[in-house]
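Incident log, structure service

09:12 report received: a user says their structure output differs between two submissions of the same chain.
09:20 pulled the input from the user's history:
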Amino acid sequence: MISYILRRLLYALPLLFAVNVLTFTLFFVVNSPDDMARMQLGQKHITEQAIQNWKQQHGYDKPLLWNENVEGSNKFTQTIFYSKSVGLMLFNFGTSDSGRNIGADIQERAVPSLALALPTLLIGLVVNICAALLMVLFRRQRIEQVGIILCVMLMSISSLFYIISGQFFIAKVLKLVPISGYDDGFAMIKFLILPVFIGVFTGIGSGVRWYQTLFLEEAEKDYVRTARAKGLTETQTLFRHVLPNAMIPILTGVVVILPSLFMGSLIMESFFSIPGLGSYTIDAINSQDFAIVRAMVFLGSVLYIFGLLLTDISYTLVDPRVRLT
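09:34 re-ran on a clean worker, output below:
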């Protein structure tokens, strides 16, 4: 197992480096350092000297990839790529274009993002799986038909509608929770109740339909028919056979959500004024702070690869065939 984990970690290094290079290329092909300086300083009445001063202050006055004006290894190290992107591989996020410490900002804002995303994920999984099992248990009956109709209706409505409606009726009209905001410690719970509830509710439609499809596929297999023939009830077959054998696709789906636990929900955090990584990224995009955006793109890639590694390890726990391999 240890050698397997080490091998997967070694596979991840060149992939992360390729993502880093691709991100750097896309950013600086679309926006040159001169363009970035103009966006930060303003488009009107900007002198060439002001642009050069801004580039020098923020480390963009060097060549992009190769410096012909120096000798030896400095040809590579005295470049924008080395100073701005190579450090990301060591999780040295550097400073933003506005002068803030990106690493410190990420540490500070990761807690609100986790406080919002973790309960949303866990509660959503329980609700979706239980609802999907209920629909499979009563398949070809009225409960399944009503459930499918409700899921399709929930999937057809934008999440923005649920956010605005929840803020209006639950927070403004009923005054059960604050409309938006955030606080430290246990005081943050009252600010998280509404966004967590809306986050779970918006995912019910697609989540229940997806899990229902997984469970129905397993419920029609030969080993489940054999279990029924041996005298097991429908409830016993669902929980003893169908649910455990559907864990691999469930774990694969959870991995897609894993980066959002740290990266935060862009829309939810912005609407509810939660100072997490999602709103941090939105603010960086609005202010054209490309250093922060590059750091967040790289961090998202790291978390996604780490999630894939955790998924592969969890496969060995739920599937004996993987352990034998």
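09:41 both user submissions now match this output. Likely a transient worker issue. Closing.
09:42 reviewer note: The radius of gyration is 25 Å. The CA atoms of residues 198 and 252 lie 24 Å apart.
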